[in-house]
Amino acid sequence: MVIDKDLSHHVYVLEQPLRPGDSLELNFLVQYNPQGFKQKGIKPLVVEGGTNFTNFDLLPTIGYFSDRELDDAVIRKKYLLTARPEMPSLYDPEARKKPMNKNQTTFEAIIGTAMNEVAVAPGALQRTWTENDRRYFHYKTDSQIGGEYSVLSADYAVIESKWKDVAIKIYYHPGHNQNIDKMMNSIQASLEYYTEQFGAYPYKNFTAIERAGPGSGASADAGIIYYGEQYGLMNPDDSPTCFDLQYYIMAHELAHQWWGLARLNPAYVEGARCFD
């Protein structure tokens, strides 16, 4: 076992290697205590009445993650590391064999939260119940998702609809409802168009959810889109010639269910970021 307290990096060796299909249980406790604040780039993981974090923010990671390697040329030089491009050349035949999103996983989680909040995670909601003054939500995906995912909880309102056999849910702060209809229209129209053009949508559910904190954009994971508070509060011109930004952004992020996530996964070479 190797323990690096300065970098919070631990290396463990199992007494008996895991065999294919085997598993083991990992128990851990996370304590989150922010120290001060930054000028910009603040990520509100826990705020009053809400929680929003990814597994890479708070949960331990197992295995080697190349995404955590230093890629900045100046920093690499500081630590006497060899120079290298941020991403391999598209002419590198070995690099073209490696996918951009290589950490695919199945997902299932039971999340406990406050009685007045709704917890949301990837996948379809299997069931919910209360126990010892806590609410519990059981989520499970029906297909593989990427290796990074988010868990959110807040006093959400929710609107539900369907497109064919796909269950659609939009979770939002109760006071931020002025553009919900535009979002729902964009989701349904996008599912219709992309399915016709690119193939079947790979999941039985689709979720859009507002996350705490500033931000006018959105981001996509498999079967779910997260958007910032400012996105939901935009008030664009509704004239016939206007540019409907809410509709456009939602359609763009939904396209990632085919391009860059579920259907088409580019090689990890220069140009792959264009899928963002």
Terminus-to-terminus distance: 38 Å
Helical residue percent band = 10-25%
pLDDT < 50 stretches? none
Number of strands: 14
The strands making up the biggest β-sheet line up spatially as 10-11-12-14-13
Topology:
Layout: E1 2-4, E2 9-11, E3 46-47, E4 50-54, H1 55-58, H2 73-78, E5 108-113, E6 118-120, E7 124-131, E8 134-140, E9 150-154, E10 157-163, E11 166-172, H3 180-198, E12 205-210, E13 218-221, E14 224-227, H4 229-233, H5 245-255
Parallel strand pairs: 11-12, 12-14
Antiparallel strand pairs: 1-2, 3-4, 4-9, 5-8, 6-9, 7-8, 10-11, 13-14
Helix pairs in contact: 3-5
Describe the structure in brief.
By secondary structure, the protein is α+β, with helices and mostly antiparallel strands. It has helices spanning 55-58, 73-78, 180-198, 229-233, 245-255, and strands at residues 2-4, 9-11, 46-47, 50-54, 108-113, 118-120, 124-131, 134-140, 150-154, 157-163, 166-172, 205-210, 218-221, 224-227.
Keyword list:
single chain; 276 residues; alpha+beta; five-stranded mixed β-sheet; four-stranded antiparallel β-sheet; 5 helices; 14 strands; globular
